């Protein structure tokens, strides 16, 4: 291993994503001892910054990580080999000023990497992390590939959404990018794929024969995938208004969860086998019908204290952008025919939460009268857990039947003091060349195919006699518009008690 060097080049290093996610993730991996022995991180951006200025911007994000690892080492005394201070990490970092897409700058970068970092190593790898707006992806790679590709090791490129805003724009972006980049070099991030409970879906489904027989329309009545945030757009309104909640989290994060819940067993755990199955199930989902969609936009909170969406400075006064949506889709195969897959997502709701909730059918026969349905819940956040809502006898002399849970809460059951951030996990996967948790080009295409007709209707682009979809309002901090509950109930979901 000492013969090998790895460079991380973070393009867009002075931006928000790099500051909040990329650098803290790399620093956490460093603290965990997971980065290669010989590595350097080059922050690449256009701004004229000294290294000290640059470092100053990163410091708050890194301080949070070191606070955690500092405490941990006090508890686990044997871990003194772990480097806890951002200073030891800092020695491996540098700042490079350059334009994206400039051949001169790419050549200059290459020279620097070869001379300063890689010269004494037999092998040299480069991971390019594009923390950039997607409109710059293709240009950036077009300059880097011929001029700044390592000739003595692997080259990988990490990119992040938004990958277009509908099928045609996504196809265009993909074809520009894939004209310069090979699929095997491309690591398209959907950070939900790096979350612990999302990673647990494959082991849960295919490592437990207990779930095999119930996992179909024979026993499952409906599925609900929910994403809620208890904050609004918080000054990101200018960006958000062009995107809306469906493109922001449903077409990507929620659909990824759905895919993992619904796909067939892959031939192996290898990345291409898993991604083949994901594409297969996506192909069996028809475009979402507009009559299966409820939209909402938040207004000021009921007490008048928290501003509404249109109070966000970047948002136009007549915005029809949805900050909330509930929609229903169906999978046309033998396993899932007739089962509604309900997705619900919103900003400015009553809590922060993400989960998959699988509701089973009613117990036939009525031996105990009417019982609420069994539900298998995969709680992605907070309090990562899997639980099955079941009935049992009230302990003691009573003969009452009560609802309770078989509950696997990760923090209670396992000896863990932290779960890694999704970006940390995915950066490590990329470093290991493991593409299981990255989105392949054909997968992205299918995702847009499912959502595009409905999005075009909402945006008023559909033409013909398509009727625009009403955007209901809901107060900040509420459960969203009541029409959403009506849609969910229409598709047979029955409210249960408890959590
Ligand atoms: C991002 C969206 O992809 O995911 C944000 O752009 C959203 O609007 C975020 O807040 C949610 O991620 P997490 O990890 O906080 O649930």
UniProtKB/TrEMBL annotation:
Pathway noted in the entry: Carbohydrate degradation; pentose phosphate pathway; D-ribulose 5-phosphate from D-glucose 6-phosphate (oxidative stage): step 1/3
InterPro entries per UniProt: G6P_DH, G6P_DH_AS, G6P_DH_C, G6P_DH_NAD-bd, NAD(P)-bd_dom_sf
E.C. designation(s): 1.1.1.49
Record field: catalytic activity: D-glucose 6-phosphate + NADP(+) = 6-phospho-D-glucono-1,5-lactone + NADPH + H(+)
Broad EC category: oxidoreductase
Domain Glucose-6-phosphate dehydrogenase C-terminal span(s) in chain numbering: 203-493
Gene Ontology molecular function: glucose-6-phosphate dehydrogenase activity; NADP binding
Pfam family name, one: G6PD_C
PROSITE patterns noted in UniProt: G6P_DEHYDROGENASE
Superkingdom to which the source organism belongs: Eukaryota
SUPFAM superfamilies: Glyceraldehyde-3-phosphate dehydrogenase-like, C-terminal domain (SSF55347), NAD(P)-binding Rossmann-fold domains (SSF51735)
Keywords: Carbohydrate metabolism, Glucose metabolism, NADP, Oxidoreductase, Signal
Any Gene Ontology biological process: pentose-phosphate shunt, oxidative branch
Residue intervals of the Glucose-6-phosphate dehydrogenase NAD-binding domain: 9-198
Family: Belongs to the glucose-6-phosphate dehydrogenase family.
Function: Catalyzes the rate-limiting step of the oxidative pentose-phosphate pathway, which represents a route for the dissimilation of carbohydrates besides glycolysis.
Protein name: Glucose-6-phosphate 1-dehydrogenase
